[in-house]
Amino acid sequence: MPWLQLIVNSSRKYAASLEDAVLAAGAISVTLQDNADQPILEPALGETPLWNETRLTGLFDAEVDTERAMDTIRSRFGNPLPDYRWEQLEDKDWEREWMQNYHPICCGDRLWICPSWKEPPEPDAVNLMLDPGLAFGTGTHPTTFLCLQWIDQQTMTGKTLIDFGCGSGVLGIASLLLGANKVTGVDIDPQALLATAENAKRNQLPADVMPVYLPADCPSDPADIMLANILAGPLAELAVTLNALTKPGGQLCLSGILVSQAETVMAAYKEWFTFDPIESQEEWVRLTATKKTG
Question: Tens digits of per-residue pLDDT, 101-112?
Answer without folding.
Answer: 567 888 889 998
